[in-house]
Amino acid sequence: MPQLMRKRVHKFVELSKPGDRGGKIFDVFIISLIGLNVLAVILGSVKNIYIDYQAYFNWFEVFSVAVFTTEYLLRLWACVEEAGGRFTHPVKGRLRFAVTPMALIDLAAILPFYLSMFVSLDLRFLRALRLVRILKLTRYSSAINLLLNVFKDESPAFAAALLILAIILVFASTGIYLFEHKMQPETFSSIPSAVWWAVATLTTVGYGDVIPITTGGKIFGIGVMIVGIGMVALPAGILASAFSQQLHQRHEDYKELVDDVLGDGKVSLDEHVVLENMRVNLGLSKEDAQKIMLRVVREEFKRQEACPHCGEILDSDSCPADSWRVKKRV
Fold first, then answer.
1. Phi-psi region of 168 (alpha: psi -120 to 50; beta: other; left: phi over 0)
2. 306 beta partners
3. Structure confidence by residue, pLDDT tens digits, 12-70
4. What are phi and psi of 88, to 5 degrees?
5. Which of 171, 168, 173 is nearest to 234 (CA)?
6. 162 vs 181: CA distance, rounded Å
7. DSSP 173-230
8. pLDDT tens-digit series, residues 119-133
């Protein structure tokens, strides 16, 4: 009985599947509550509004923490039922689940409230920490998951780009210090104090509050700005390329499943549910899924019409295998 209840709870708190009305309602409720929490933090930063409605803000915070705490405990309790067997062990499995990124985000969403009972915290700081709850949306957003996968897959490339940027930042800070220290001893008093100018220049922001005044410093600054344009474009290019690859891979994954499903020439109800679940998990629109399905059907139809000897369409007179004919598939 407890195991059956755990399975039901796990199915309920996880992302809803197509046709799962109860799970869909739960997802919408949690997403709406997260949005209202973010709105409450924003409005609570306005002094007049917070003073006038402080009691409502406090009660809403208690209600939100109660809901998020219950959600966290239910996920921790039911995680042993997750497919794949990663969290099967009743103790080690739950501990392994507790240190997963999403579980840590769920914990961070409620931890400041409980810490405030034992540790004296600035109320403004505590209210700002509630914005961590917006990270819970990553569970429900395929776009955010796509971005996280991009950073994960391209982490070596991003690390290399950041390392190059750090090296150039050190050279830029040191160079401008050598050129400008004597003329602007207060502004460029040391290499660390020159980092602000180097960052603002390398990122092409250029606030203008700290600028070189010597000829050498200006020429050096021009070189740093030119290098900065390339450095900003480098991670942007990596990100754009990785996004394109991820989207292409998702289309290919869905296409492979469609190929398998259409292997027997028809799509059963169970197979349709599997296709729809994968479409939702991959974040594909219905239009994209239909285009992939149509492309697979067309490819299959062409394979059925083509001669296995020469690849020509069967009714072509050029086919040497005149005795080989396959009835066209309707």
1. alpha
2. 313
3. 777 666 667 777 888 888 889 988 988 988 888 888 888 888 899 889 989 999 999 99
4. -65, -40
5. 168
6. 27
7. HHHHHHHHTTT-TTTTSSHHHHHHHHHHHHTT---SSS---SHHHHHHHHHHHHHHHH
8. 776 656 666 677 777
pTM, two decimals, is: 0.63
Which pairs from 133-139 meet CB under 8 Å and 24+ separation?
Answer: 133/34, 133/37, 133/38, 133/64, 133/68, 133/109, 134/34, 134/37, 134/38, 135/105, 135/108, 135/109, 136/30, 136/34, 136/68, 136/105, 136/106, 136/109, 137/31, 137/34, 138/102, 138/105, 139/15, 139/102
Compute the distance between CA of residue 40 and CA of residue 43 in angstroms, rounded to an integer: 5
Residue type, 268: S
Residues 6+ away with beta carbon under 8 Å from 290: none
φ/ψ of residue 52, rounded to 5: -70, -30
Give per-residue pLDDT as tens, 60-73: 989 999 999 999 99
**Contact (Cβ atoms closer than 8 angstroms) between residue 216 and residue 182:** no
The distance in angstroms from the start CA to the end CA of the chain is 51
